[in-house]
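In response to the reviewer comment on reproducibility (Comment 2.3), we provide here a single inverse folding case reported in full, input and output, so that an independent group could reproduce the run without further information from us. The structure tokens appear first.
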């Protein structure tokens, strides 16, 4: 079977600039390539050739640009290539469905949704309905996303299913392993973090991600655990360290915080796992209806107890799972402080959540499982 995976116009695959969708495709494509002839089509990058075969997967790359520019470049390449594909798997761009259907009329189309891309401001109702009709299956990263599509377009009922994302279980080592402990000791020494607990935030620094809420929650924590450190891993956008108004605001909060706050700035995707090894608990402070942040899987794999918000799909892998706490009032620093203090004050609870998180990751959230579910969809036709 010949299969084509079409990425978004934002970032390249492999994820040399980071990105959740890019990490997802990079992880599953070689696994799928063991069974099918897989081609990945995405954007070019100075660090990557326009054409290559890597880990048994063929990569085609076109110049980045706006969505209309990318759409036209994708369609033109498909027409010039003249290659037939049994399955075309499009990622997070329902507005690519109809142009690709026209270019490859004989291919079966599968659409993966990692965000609320069927909202009216993203796609008009006529085009949305036509895209749903042209798509064989819609794969979502959370039930929240799938139910949202169905609420807008009832004709999607029975067509969507959730395939939860995954994590590299070999890279994100549980914190109790010797290698993770060595990484932890090195990072603490390099950054002068002392022996106190580390509260870990990993994500872009934007208002909807809520780093400021975490920074404003530190007062009560500092009074009880003055030796603790909040580590903020991330920047405004993938692969860069530009200072936006919001980044400057978060850094100002950090400078005035009653306890140590380390803002690392951008960390390359192949080094992020090290900070998970250094943490004691993980905080996801999503203020928006997050589809389901990948960092939850990474925290589970690392054995970090999770504090997350009841926003979007995030609670689906935490609530009732025994691996963390869910904050209902996402914008409340006081509620976050209580959750942090609850975990820091109960070592037995942290240990149970830590072990449970890793067990969940190993049982349900490895990339082999994700690839197997995608393969089953491809082979169903």
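Designed residues, in position order:
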């Amino acid at each position: 079977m010949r299969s084509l995976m079409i990425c978004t116009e934002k970032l390249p695959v492999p994820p040399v600039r980071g990105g959740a969708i890019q990490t997802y495709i990079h992880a599953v494509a070689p696994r799928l390539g063991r069974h099918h002839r897989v081609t990945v089509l995405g954007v070019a990058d100075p660090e990557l050739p326009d054409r290559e075969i890597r880990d048994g997967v063929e990569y085609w790359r076109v110049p980045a640009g706006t969505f209309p520019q990318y759409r036209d470049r994708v369609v033109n390449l498909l027409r010039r290539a003249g290659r037939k594909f049994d399955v075309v798997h499009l990622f997070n761009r329902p507005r690519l469905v109809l142009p690709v259907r026209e270019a490859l009329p004989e291919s079966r189309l599968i659409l993966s949704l990692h965000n609320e891309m069927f909202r009216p401001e993203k796609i008009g109702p006529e085009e949305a309905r036509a895209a749903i009709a042209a798509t064989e299956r819609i794969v979502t990263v959370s039930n929240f996303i799938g139910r949202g599509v169905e609420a807008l377009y009832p004709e999607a009922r029975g067509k969507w299913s959730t395939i939860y994302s995954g994590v590299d279980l070999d890279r994100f080592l549980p914190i109790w392993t010797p290698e993770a402990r060595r990484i932890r000791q090195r990072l603490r020494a390099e950054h002068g973090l002392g022996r106190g607990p580390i509260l870990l935030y990993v994500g872009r620094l934007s208002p909807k991600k809520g780093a400021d809420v975490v920074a404003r929650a530190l007062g009560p924590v500092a009074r009880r655990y003055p030796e603790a450190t909040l580590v903020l891993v991330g920047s405004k956008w993938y692969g860069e360290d530009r200072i936006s108004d919001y980044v400057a605001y978060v850094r100002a909060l950090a400078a005035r915080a009653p306890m140590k706050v380390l803002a690392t700035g951008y960390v390359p995707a192949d080094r992020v796992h090290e900070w998970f090894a250094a943490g004691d608990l993980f905080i996801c402070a999503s203020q928006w209806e997050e589809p389901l942040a990948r960092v939850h899987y990474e925290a589970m794999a690392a054995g970090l107890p999770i504090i997350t918000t009841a926003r979007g799909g995030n609670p689906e892998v935490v609530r009732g799972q025994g691996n963390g706490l869910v904050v209902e009032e996402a914008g409340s620093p006081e509620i976050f402080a209580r959750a942090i203090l609850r975990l820091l004050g109960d070592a037995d609870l942290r240990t149970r959540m830590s072990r449970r998180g890793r067990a969940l990751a190993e049982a349900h959230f490895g990339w082999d499982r994700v690839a197997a579910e995608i393969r089953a969809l491809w082979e169903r036709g």
